[in-house]
């Protein structure tokens, strides 16, 4: 059985699509496991550390800023939420 190697990240990236059609079933199985791992991490409440401000934040976005590369509140690594057009401290 093919499993994603890292379930500690929420991001998903498409793998290299095989040239040979006979390799497609294994590719699709692998991709589905990677998607499942990303969904499972979100469902478990996992949030990756964010190092750069989102380019288009939306009301209700939640991030864990790294506090160095991206430090929207100037208070170090914190959970922040986007509300009323600004990032606010969540904890």
Helix proportion: 10-25%
Structure class? alpha+beta
Radius of gyration: 17 Å
Percent range for β-strand residues: 15-25%
Described by strand count, sense and barrel closure, the largest sheet is: 4 strands, mixed
Shape: elongated
For the record, give the distance between the C-alpha atoms at the N and C termini, rounded to a whole number: 39 Å
Q: How are the strands of the biggest sheet laid out side by side? A: 1-2-3-4
Query: Tally of extended strands?
Result: 4
> Please, how many helices?
1
**Could you spell the SSE succession in H and E letters?**
HEEEE
Give the overall average pLDDT: 88
Model regions low in confidence, pLDDT < 50 over at least 5 residues = 1-7
What does the model show?
With 91 residues, this protein is of the alpha+beta class. It contains 1 helix and 4 strands; from the N terminus they run αββββ. It has a 4-stranded mixed beta sheet, with no helix packed on it. The model is unreliable at 1-7 (pLDDT under 50).
Name some characteristics of this structure.
single chain; alpha+beta; disordered N terminus
Structure described in brief:
The protein is an alpha+beta fold and 91 residues long.
List the helices and strands and how they pair.
Blueprint: H1 24-43, E1 49-50, E2 62-65, E3 78-83, E4 86-89
Parallel strand pairs: 1-2
Antiparallel strand pairs: 2-3, 3-4
């Amino acid at each position: 059985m093919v499993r994603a190697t890292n379930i500690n990240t929420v991001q998903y990236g498409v793998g290299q699509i095989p040239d040979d059609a006979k390799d497609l079933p294994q590719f699709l199985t692998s991709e589905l496991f990677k998607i499942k791992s990303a969904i499972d991490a979100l469902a478990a409440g996992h949030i990756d550390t964010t190092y750069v401000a989102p380019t288009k934040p939306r009301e209700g976005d939640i991030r864990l800023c790294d506090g160095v590369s991206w430090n929207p509140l100037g208070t170090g690594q914190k959970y922040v939420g986007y509300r009323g057009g600004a990032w606010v401290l969540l904890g």
